[in-house]
Every structure is written in C-alpha cells, then in structure tokens.
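name: query_chain
kind: protein
chains: 1
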Amino acid sequence: MPNFPRIVATGVGLTSPLGNDLKTMRENLLAGRPNVREHELRYVGKVLAGVCDFDATKHQSKKNARRGTRAGSLAVFCAGDALADAGVELADPSRVGVYVGITEHGNVETENEIAAIKEHDYDVKLWTHHHNPRTVANNPAGEVCLNLGLTGAHCCLGAACAAGNYGIIHAAQQLMLGECDVALGGGVSESIHTFGIYAGFQSQNALAHHADPNRASRPFDRDRNGIVIAEGGALFVLERYADAHQRGAKILFEVCGWAMNTDATDFVLPNPDRQAECMALALRRAGLNPDQIGVVSTHATGTKEGDIREIQAIKKVFGERPAAWVNNAKSFWGHAMGAAGALELAGNLPAFADGAVHPTINVDNLDPECAIGERLVVGRPCEGQTVSYILNNSFGMLGVNAALVVGKV
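structure:
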C-alpha cells in the first residue's frame, strides 16, 4: 500500500479441529487427515461438526472461563499463543489493539438461558446476570483484553463468513493509521454450539450428511450435499515492518493488499462478478498480476452454487487456466464461519518456506463446473513449488466479500 508503512505478521495463535498450533494443523493438512465428528445438539440431535479440543485455561483463570463464553475462550487462547509466538514485548498495553472477526455472537448464551428457565416455568429471576456481558457483540475481543491486560482499542467485526479476513485487514489499517503499535487480528467462531445455526441451515437443506463424518465436507465434488459447521479461531500479531525488523522478529507474511465489497444482490447466493471485482482490486492494490499469485485459498463451502460461482469469479480474474494453485481447507474440518478466513490463511502460510501446497480432500468426482485448468490441488500436496504470494478468499451472507493478499518477506 503506497504512502503507508509496511505491515507484517510476526506471530500466530490458533485452535482448529486439526490441532492447536500451526505445526500440528499443517502436518494434518499435508497428510490429508480430516477431523469431523458427530456432535449432539439440543433440539436438533446428532449433527456433524468440526470440534476443537484446547486448554481454555492456558491464558485465563477458571473463574474467567466460567464467567465468559466459548468464543471468548477461543479468542483468549489464540491471542495468548499469538503473542507468545511473536515474542513481542508489550511495553505499553494501551498501544495494543484487538480486532476479532465474528459471524454471530450471543446466540449460544441466550439459547442456554432460555433452556434453563424453561425448566422453571420461564421464571426470569433465574436468568444469569452474566448474560449481557456474554452477549454483547464485542465480547470475544473484550475477553482477550480483560484476560491479557490489554488496554488499547478493541472491537469485533461482524462480517459473516468473511470476518476472519476482516479482522486481519482492520488490524493492518489501524497500524497504518498509527492507532496502535501491535495489533491482534483474525477471527473466532463458536457456531457449533448454537442450535439456531444448524436449524437454519437444515431448513435450507444445506447441512452436509455422509455415513463417514470425515467425508461429509466435499467442496467442488459433484456429490457434495452441504455444509459441515466447525468451531475454531486464529489470531495474528501484526506490526509495522520497521518495528518488527528492528527487534529481529521472525516474519510470517507481509500484508500486501486487500479489498472488501458487497454483492447487494441476494441474502444468500453469492455474486461472482462482485467476488471477481474484490479479488481484482486486492491484486491491484498489492501491485501484482494474477500470474504472480502462487496459491488461491478458496472460500468454497461445499454448496453447489457457492462453489461454482467462486470458481467462475476466479476464472474471471485468473483466466481459464490460471498459473496459481487452488486449494480448500474446509474439506478437512468444515466451515469455521468467522474463523474460516484466518484459519485457512494460516494453513497455507508454510508454503512460503516448504513449497508444498496442501490438498483439497474428498473430491472423488470433480464437478465439471468447478474444473479450473488442472490447478485444483486434490488428494495429495503439490510439492516443490515457489510460493511468493497467497490470495485468501472469504465471502459471506448478505453478500459480504473480502480478499486478502499476503506475501513472503
């Protein structure tokens, strides 16, 4: 971005169904090991989900974990690990900003309270006094600040399933503007714990099903039948390049360019023209040509129209036979909603160093409308590549789009 300081990521903290650190998650991605399981949910019964198993008290007390939320615990875990990974000294906590993308927040807590008072003739005197701080939209970011003693600005960015990218972009913007010196940016999601999310997708006939849970999430496959919902989180420590370089920090990536726009055409169905415009603008702002991108990390959720329209958009920007490799991480754990963009970006970052592009799995019969010049990485990693730039796509309901370009330093 001209006339602004360069922004880089120096640390990452994450929890995913494939593991609680980048090394473990990456090993499972390269090995083609998914993790989707049956999950029992109030009123809905057995559903499929990508479930995280992490130590919620690693960076917070048991008391705070009880008073807080699942999304808050995800965010605190990721933030604490990200700061430790970056090795940054927080000399002034008022200069640390926290920007967390979310799809939705508060449904779980409200559903739990209604279920509890239902057992007592809906006596609202039994409603917990923790409900309001649990359900305010800024909760996950606020819980990070509360538990880690950070006193700078914090907010959550509601951007549906583009929220993970939005959190990173907003963090970079705040650093460029000088509003903070260290920023935590990314996204979290607790969506597997709310029956409303599942019931809504079920009413749309959009929930995936398969006899083998690990084969249920099938983006681009002709026989796909819907979305697998996942929880998770990923937060990055972002800094100005000059500051990171001065302290000799390792650099995960440089934020090279981004774009955000809106379809304004449908509540749910994506618009490939607007998606293409978003990607093209991100590339233009990064000063890159499409053939300089090594990996396009797709948003594809495993719904027919969503997958096809994104491939149409990619072809508009990259051509029928793009130079970039194309992959998808949702095939491993499902759709982590607000965390999706940040987690999927993290999974591709090691390609800068090892030259391996992780595969998309469960593509047994490629939908012909999703073929993209033999560049979709299927089944096994594509190794021995030179990857200098990654384009990370995140799109969501109400037509919210975000494309993020990151580069190797």
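note: The chain has a mean pLDDT of 97.
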